[in-house]
Design a protein that fits this description.
By secondary structure, this protein is of the alpha/beta class. The chain has 14 helices and 21 strands. The strands form six sheets. An eight-stranded mixed β-sheet has the order 12-11-8-13-16-17-19-20, with helices on both faces. The protein has a five-stranded parallel β-sheet with strand order 2-1-3-4-5, sandwiched between helices. Helix 1 crosses helix 9 and helix 4 packs across helix 6. It is globular and about 70 Å long. It binds cytidine-5'-monophosphate. Cytidine-5'-monophosphate binds next to helix 12 and strand 16.
Amino acid sequence: MTGRRILLIIGGGIAAYKCLEFVRRAQERGFRVRAVMTRAATAFVTPLSMGAITGERVFLDLFDRDDEHDIGHIRLAREADAVVVAPATADLLAKMAGGHADDLASTVLLATDKPVLVAPAMNPQMWSHSATQRNVAQLRDDGIRFVGPNSGEMAESGESGVGRMAEPMEILEAVDGLLEGAVNDAEKSVSPLSGRRVLVTAGPTHEPIDPVRYIANRSSGKQGYAIADAASALGADVTLVSGPTTLRPPLGITTIQVESAADMLEAVSNALPVDVAIFAAAVADWRVDTASEQKIKKQSGDSPPTLSLVENPDILATIAKHEHARPGLVIGFAAETENVVAYAQAKRARKGCDWMIANDVSPATGIMGGDQNTIHVISADSVETWPQMAKNDVGKALMERVANHLAGR
Ligand code: C5P
């Protein structure tokens, strides 16, 4: 069983019910799962059902004489190959970040020497609160890995936003990534981007017209996802902020799903500070001034509605000109259909980024939505034109260039 034991720490949130499914799926993949539940968790799933499904005793109290006698919290913390916290509530994250140890769950988390993966689940307001974001940043710095939270509808309130717990299969894939990562840790510490934080935006944005209609563009997100993957493979700690795409969130990367440019700006701002920020998203330049709260009805005889557009915030320019937290290297993308290099050079200077990656997105090139890309890498004093390559290879070559730049080469 070596390499296949998970210690699952269940926090007190409605998403705790997904843990039963998580355990089943984990067992199908050959994992043995042992569970620790916080007191609050037992209000959502019973220790009896967790025990039945794990086939193991469930651990609840720090000072349970039987538990401590049989195994003890230190052994419990170390006998697993990976520790998974799901659902991780705002309170549990705060305790972890502060190093508290006043119950079995928090004590085990402090005592473990194994990789820890956290699947947060909470109300979107609680997730975006600066206290929670501070704790998340602290935990990331401490080497804790995150999966989710995803955006969607909340079970309790029907509110939507970022805060839904990742699905059991996503968590399992992240565990696989974590265990592989642990094996590769020695290599990672000499990886060129090890210890570096990289932020990548990808995909289009959707700007609502009314609850069912939106303005969008043809971006597939493939180039941004490939860059995020390549950065992670070189050892970086990557946050990917993605507009709506059909792509799967990459393994081992914190992926934040957003819809509109305003949401993307908020998620990007929350991800700072980072060492490198790469803005590959095709952000909508305009949004509808006031999106209708109700579906706009088509009445026979009426003339079509007029959409009044206002400019979206420029995310790249905002971050490139950030007073306190400008990343050391800021890279923008310029999709053009004519005068590609000249327009991109002007855009680089105007937006204040260090490099601009320019590409020709005329329909004949097939770049928008396709798998190939031909780019120019433009800095203040140079223009490099790269041959046509697969988007995955562009991602790898670009991140290698970034790593060389950071190393002063
Ligand atoms: O001005 P244009 O949209 O061509 O610039 C493209 C670059 O600017 C991309 O890196 C894109 O991600 C970024 N951008 C942005 N916010 C906007 C528009 C574009 O960050 N509102």
